Please model this.
Amino acid sequence: MKIVSAHVGTIPISSPIRNAYIDFSSMDCSILALVSDVIVDGRPVVGYGFNSNGRYNASAILEQRLLPRLLAAPEAELLDDDGALAPERAWRVMLRNEKPGGHGERSVAVGVADMALHDLAAKLAGVPLYRWISDHYGDGKPDADVFVYAAGGYYAPGKTLTDLQDEMHRFLDAGYRVVKMKIGGAPLDEDLRRIEAVIDGVLDGDGSRLAVDVNGRFDLDTALEYARALEPLGLFWYEEIGDPLDYALNAVVAENYRRPIATGENLFSMQDARNLLRYGGMRPDRDYIQVDPALSYGLTEYRRVLDVLDRHGWSSRRCIPHGGHQFSLHIAAGLHLGGNESYPGEFQPTGGFTDDAQVVDSRVAPGELPGIGLEGKAEFYSVLRGLHA
Ligand SMILES: O=C([O-])CC(=O)C(=O)O
Ligand SMILES: [Mg+2]
Model:
């Protein structure tokens, strides 16, 4: 097995929505095809990768550093002892001559390549990725389906409370039980009206089915003011409250807020996640870790994150990755995570699951196509095919 060519593209995943920190009017991402020399049914087996939303494309790092190393490596450096593609070995090749620290855009680029390598490895083995992950990295007994919640509730120009309620009703109609909305982009009293409109108008008064996401906007005073107002509502979680690297802020909020906290989508390495556990006051009996493998050096690094969590007494069930993509859906099923995010309708064409995926009672199965199964997302697959056809 040899990787004969690598093809990088940059595509928009933009929309007019806004969270408390950024709008998505110019959001884009990198896409990648790794073409192998293995031919099945007259076509080469190809692994695909992309980065999820929130960080912009990292195409230059892929093109200028990571992929040249991958393509120049002797075949044996990418293979395991049985001659099969070993994504973790290829990962080490890509990161040769890179210093530690300084995670960020590099971790996005590696995340894209790591995803494509895992897609390719599972396709070469002829199995869906969750099965490959479970057999190679897990206990061989993957979960049949995965908890998913519907994320949305963004701020948008002209969006009314009724529009917000309609959006949340659509999520419930699509099979989700738990929904998420943005806060922190409006004054507290206005956010509370938005929250109450969803809890009372959509969720039959049950706040435990609503998560709220600040996208790192609050200083400590505002974080605590909101915490006091939110606690009686019994929310599913209070997310990314302050700057992602302000572990002390997170710890103080955790001391003052009894309900679950979720964070980690802007932590890009095992070391960052470990610092969150060491200094962030996160509580293993109730809080959630949202590190997104597609943004943070891929599944190879994510396994290190899971190992650190385990050493700190955390269950993998407390991990619900950010990003709403099909890659993390397989990882969640293969490694017994607590769930995965979903954005019905946003961040197309990359976001979401295969076209035939059915969410029932907030659970969805990763599907049985070989690899990640992006071939089952028709619009996205036509874009990916265009990279190398
Ligand atoms: O608005 C965003 O950047 C996405 C986000 O935080 C999430 O999905 O949790
Ligand atoms: Mg978030």
